């Protein structure tokens, strides 16, 4: 197997990771400048405009694919090409703790420029999942496969289990499966917004799939496995969703128009992610991962750059959005009728401005990410690997 083939195998991961973080930028631009048209998950298809619905739907791919690739990358870190195996448990523990620290410091401040409430969101979920994987990675691969599938397919069966805020078990259950305030009174409130149990299942499955990306597996075999796995996810989704069998609290129903019927079919719960949510996103993600192994274009090169420095992109884009918000607020003043809505004073009148702003910021962030990527690959500084 040539070095070029091995490189394509790894480049496909960066391209896919780059794509989902660009999609994330679009969604975070929406949350910064279009919050007066906020949507729930699942969305109300009777009141949500189709353009807004599908813009939000795109963002569903971000967390599942990124968490899955985190598990996959952990395996590749543990098993470098032509080098001795590395201690992945230590790396996962330190990296996971680092992400949790970032969540409660830089990330939380970037959203509101204040610390009134600490929201434990996606970085928290990834960090806790990495810490959990550090413990689970000692298990045999077959056990990990069974555990990952059991969590992904079975966690929705736990939905009837609930705890009141004053009951023993509430805090742990709010972290694992239900959203809720861990601290609801006092100077700083703390809310677990991303239940972590399903994400532990996803990161475990990503780790289990790691051997597919080793040098001992031919590209054709890997791509076939990804395509078969992706199609299997989507077929399972179609069966479960069309018959409303399991996994989603909001049933699918045929609507008055084709567009609304499609919206109903694709309307999944994200917190915690339902089984249809994960089958949809990870199924398409597997197909894209197979496709990107042979992608060669300027666009794929740009996405590869973004995907090579995901944490740098994540932190920087949040503060670019924060600064942009205050600059526009200073230049144009509050949007009439918007003051006080969810704490924001400025918003765009049309969704097209969200896409345009995200496109401009993508160009700006590319230059920054390219510079940092070049520095990262030429530097031996210890802290660089964390970004």
From TrEMBL:
Pfam families registered for this protein in UniProt: HGSNAT_cat
Record-annotated membrane-spanning stretches: 57-77, 97-115, 121-139, 144-165, 196-213, 225-243, 274-292, 312-332, 352-369
Keywords: Membrane, Transmembrane, Transmembrane helix
Keyword Transmembrane helix: yes
Domain Heparan-alpha-glucosaminide N-acetyltransferase catalytic, chain residue ranges per copy: 9-224
InterPro entries: HGSNAT_cat
Protein name: Heparan-alpha-glucosaminide N-acetyltransferase catalytic domain-containing protein
Organism annotation: Pseudoalteromonas citrea
Species classification: Bacteria, Pseudomonadati, Pseudomonadota, Gammaproteobacteria, Alteromonadales
